[in-house]
Amino acid sequence: MFDIGASELLMVIIVAVVVIGPKDMPMAMRTAGRWIGKMRKISGHFRAGVDAMVREAELEEMEKQWRAQNEAIMKSTPQLPSAEEMQAPIASRQGDAGSVGEAKSPEAAATDTPAPLSGEQSAAQDEAPRDAKEQQSRQAELNLPPPPP
């Protein structure tokens, strides 16, 4: 660190003994040891602070990469419909049947015919029974109890 050789260290010790004197030498060495300890402690705190700053910078960089990857994934996957988009067909069906508090007479309910289904809606209704049958067969294979009603 300071690149002090053995001969240089010996010269410093001889000068210290001559200048300080042999009686006060132990007290001077203790004082020097305390100063060195304090300097090491301060340098340790400084090093820890620098390491913490480096870790925070790396963490921020990793967080930016994660956000970029997350955005790329979100753009590449299809979006699910929002709650408002899902409630729009329900609201239109309720509008056809009348208001929520309104009850139809049994004669009116019997004469109502459902509107013809579009291709997508009929395909979805055809898939529902198949999905239910597949789910029942999977439950039977795994010996699972049936789902609650």
TrEMBL record:
Family of this protein: Belongs to the TatB family.
Protein species of origin: Novosphingobium pentaromativorans US6-1
Membrane topology summary: Single-pass membrane protein
Function: Part of the twin-arginine translocation (Tat) system that transports large folded proteins containing a characteristic twin-arginine motif in their signal peptide across membranes. Together with TatC, TatB is part of a receptor directly interacting with Tat signal peptides. TatB may form an oligomeric binding site that transiently accommodates folded Tat precursor proteins before their translocation.
Top-rank taxon: Bacteria
Name listed for the protein in its UniProt record: Sec-independent protein translocase protein TatB
Bias-annotated ranges (Basic and acidic residues): 127-136
Region Disordered: start-end pairs: 69-149
Annotated GO biological process: protein transport by the Tat complex
Residues passing through the membrane, by range: 6-22
Subunit description: The Tat system comprises two distinct complexes: a TatABC complex, containing multiple copies of TatA, TatB and TatC subunits, and a separate TatA complex, containing only TatA subunits. Substrates initially bind to the TatABC complex, which probably triggers association of the separate TatA complex to form the active translocon.
Keyword Kinase: no
Subcellular location: Cell membrane; Membrane
Keywords in alphabetical order: Cell membrane, Membrane, Protein transport, Translocation, Transmembrane, Transmembrane helix, Transport
Entry's Gene Ontology molecular function annotations: protein transmembrane transporter activity
Lineage, highest ranks first: Bacteria, Pseudomonadati, Pseudomonadota, Alphaproteobacteria, Sphingomonadales
Entries under HAMAP family matching the protein: TatB (MF_00237)
InterPro entries assigned: TatA/B/E, TatB
GO cellular component: TAT protein transport complex
